[in-house]
Design goal:
Shape: elongated
Order of helices and strands: HHHHEEEEEEEEHEEEEHHEEEEHEEEEEE
Strand content: 35-45%
Length: 542
């Protein structure tokens, strides 16, 4: 590592540049965010590279493959990516939320989408990007004739960054106006040992920075809120004066027009900014190459029980604070409010510290390499990710959150925590890569990777609306007689989703007790996502 710093005079700054640019989306709930953007060469081969590990990127895909690197090697990576998301909202026949028949979001569509990144040590910048562009690097060290190879690199094994804030009226603002989920490996001490001419083993210990940031408006289109709102209108009339008998009743009119409950009205804004600055995992790999035309590789990536800490902010719009104020200003209202556990008041802004357990799932990947002809190579890999660890996400606050206390009537007993059901599944999907040698030093590549969704329809939401997708890639590679290697790839993925009303209780359920969180209750939600990725890597001895 000292050699690397001596020869790379601006190593820390260049690594920072790489980290900024690499902090970009992994591609899908289809294996949620696995491997997209991690390696230029791997992308061009459908990520089917455990039996043919890609240079320094072997640290992630199969650290045993580092044993194929001779001498000291430096790898520079350059990336660019863009994401385009569409969401459409349709109101079906018979729509009814507590006798409210028209959702103002019905017939609307989402607007422009930009990208967000998280800067370690700095946080979430206010600006966003039309696309993410950046660079990164890695190094490997091998003494000629030695069976040992050492390496380190910076890369992103998991990331989603979406910003929908350019249009203040974008209908998706109620399910993630801005969301960043990013895991950034900034150092990965690795070692490979060549047991004999056909067998190698390897170990890598990625040291990662995990971040989670969310900024979203909130609304609660729930039947009970709708019924209470209609009751207020009937009891209090259309003016601000209310009903003179209300002070001797439950205080439904005491909050004025602002305190009238409306199921489709914004209730407030929720923000999180949380990190785990140092979260280690390990990768164990094996590579067996008994023949020139056949090889087998496997890697296990351990995952971790990541715990993030940071800040939360709840900003309440007047609706709930004025409603509570009216109830506690009446004769019988305090009795009813205390029965339901309502707070005595709701501050406009409540902020504090929070802790969240966000497991990083373990992965297992194995594959083969076949060369039926000297210039034709076929790679096939099977990939498994333990996303069922995301059965639910729980955020613990340092105090009772007054705005969440309003949900006690719906069974949310503890307002000091927010439990978000996930119910993810463990997908197994395959990747296919083809490589054609055109000349001695020039190769063409094609990758095909159909990714099954890890999210059941019952848990689909718009925080990261990424359904089953097929990733197709084309690439090329050139190697000079001096050992210089240049690889380039372009990838394209598109998926569509259709979530009819009452099919996802993370999105559009109308069940009486599904209040956290169904911001589009009763609406049909459909749309698509398109991901474009391009990259180039330069590998050379030093």
């Amino acid at each position: 590592m000292k050699m690397a710093i001596a020869r790379g005079e601006a190593l820390p700054a260049r690594w920072l540049c790489g980290l900024l640019g690499l902090a970009w989306l992994g591609a899908s709930h289809a294996a949620l965010t696995d491997n997209l953007g991690t390696s230029v060469k791997a992308m061009s081969m459908g990520n089917a590279v455990t039996a043919d590990p890609p240079g320094v990127d072997s640290i992630h895909f199969n650290p045993a493959g580092l044993s194929r690197l001779e001498g000291n090697v430096k790898q520079d990576n350059f990336f660019g990516a863009s994401i385009r998301i569409k969401a459409n909202f349709h109101q079906p026949d018979g729509f009814d939320i507590g006798d409210w028949k028209e959702d103002p979001l019905a017939g609307s569509s989402s607007g422009p989408v930009r990208q967000k990144i998280y800067l370690p040590g700095i946080g979430l910048p206010k600006w966003s990007l039309p696309a993410a562009i950046g660079a990164g690097m890695g190094f490997s060290f091998n003494r000629p004739g030695s069976p040992w190879t050492f390496a380190t690199a910076a890369y992103v094994p998991q990331a989603v960054g979406v910003d929908r804030s350019s249009d203040p009226n974008d209908p998706t603002r109620f399910d993630g106006r801005s969301v960043v989920l990013q895991r950034l490996v900034y150092l990965s001490p690795s070692v490979a040992y060549k047991v004999n001419n056909t067998l190698s083993v390897g170990l890598a210990v990625p040291l990662a920075h995990q971040s989670f940031a969310l900024d979203t408006d909130m609304r609660f289109p729930n039947k009970l809120l709708g019924i209470i709102g209609k009751l207020q209108d009937a009891w209090c009339g259309n003016g601000d004066g209310g009903n003179p008998l209300d002070e001797f009743g439950f205080g439904l009119c005491g909050g004025g027009q602002e305190g009238r409950l409306r199921p489709f009205k914004r209730a407030g804004t929720m923000k999180f900014d949380m990190t785990a600055p140092l979260d280690p995992t390990y990768n164990v790999g094996l590579l067996w190459e008994p023949k020139d035309w056949f090889a087998f590789g496997a890697v296990y990536q351990s995952g971790s029980k990541t715990t993030l800490t940071g800040r939360y902010t709840f900003m309440a719009d007047p609706m709930f604070p004025r409603f509570v104020q009216g109830m506690y200003g009446s004769l019988l209202g305090p009795v009813v409010a205390s029965m339901f556990g309502f707070p005595t008041s709701i501050p406009d802004v409540q902020t504090g510290n929070a802790t969240m357990r966000l497991p990083f799932p373990a992965r297992l990947q194995a594959g083969i390499k076949l060369k039926p002809f000297s210039r034709l190579q076929l790679n096939v890999d099977a990939m498994y990710t333990d996303w069922s660890k995301w059965d639910k996400l729980e955020i613990q606050f340092d105090r009772q959150v007054a705005l969440l206390q309003m949900a006690r009537i719906f069974g949310q007993a503890d307002a000091s925590k927010l439990v978000i059901p996930r119910g993810y599944r463990d997908p197994i999907h395959f990747g296919l890569g083809l490589e054609l040698g055109v000349t001695r030093g020039f190769k063409l590549r094609y990758g095909y990777e159909p990714r099954k969704t890890s999210v059941p329809q019952s848990a689909f939401d718009l925080i990261a609306p990424l359904p089953t997708m097929t990733v197709r890639s084309v690439g090329a590679g050139y190697e000079s007689p001096s050992g210089l290697k240049i690889d380039a790839t372009y990838s394209y993925a598109k998926g569509r989703y259709n979530v009819p009303a009452d099919t996802s209780c993370s999105l559009n359920c109308t069940n009486f007790f599904n209040v956290i969180y169904n911001p589009y209750a009763g609406l049909d939600v459909s749309g698509s996502i398109t991901v474009r990725y391009g990259g180039m890597s330069i590998t050379k001895p030093f």
